[in-house]
Design a protein that fits this description.
This protein is mainly alpha-helical and about 130 residues long. It has three helices and no strands. Residues about 1-10 have low confidence and may be disordered.
Amino acid sequence: MERPSLEFNLPDTHEEGKLYVVDSLNNLNKLNVCPAESQRPLDEEESTGGTGENMAGSNTSNQCLFFVTFILTLIVSLALVSFVIFLIFQTRNEVDQISSRLLSEKKNIEELKKLNNIILKHLNQSGIKE
């Protein structure tokens, strides 16, 4: 009626296997529920004794850094928009000046054509022929 020693060890390894499976499922559940970023502070809390002082300081500094970066981005964007608006007005003024010059030159060309026609008619009427 002796039982081999393997029979006594089998229930223990079976229990250890169950514990290993349960631990693996718990770890998997932690990974699914808590993303990697939120898992990291939990690990830090465990290593620092759960005080959370390091997290609060880094969280505040991250928020401050984000706020400063956001304000600087807004200021740079405002400066760029202002510069673009200035360039638009400057370009509009230049185009208006060029348009007025072209209109005055067109009038001058029309007047020169009229004078040329008058001169040709006068020459034809006076009988000067080449």
